[in-house]
Amino acid sequence: MAREAGTRTVALSGGCFQNAGLLERVCEQLEGFELCLPREAPANDGGLAYGQALVALARLESH
């Protein structure tokens, strides 16, 4: 999907990425992409809400 959208940046979030093994395997598959990983925001619902707020802010600022 990132390639189709013309971006090299992929954000990985959601509770499933609290699983270190899954996160590691997905990162290996996304080699060559700039990855945004759950470090400063939690990987669970709190991080998703934070990301949604950032998208909303970006959309508001673009209008």
Automatic annotation (TrEMBL):
Organism domain of life: Bacteria
Protein name (database record): [NiFe] hydrogenase metallocenter assembly protein HypF
InterPro entries given in the database record: HypF_C_2 (IPR055128)
Positions of the Carbamoyltransferase Kae1-like domain: 2-52
Gene3D superfamilies linked to this entry: 3.30.420.40
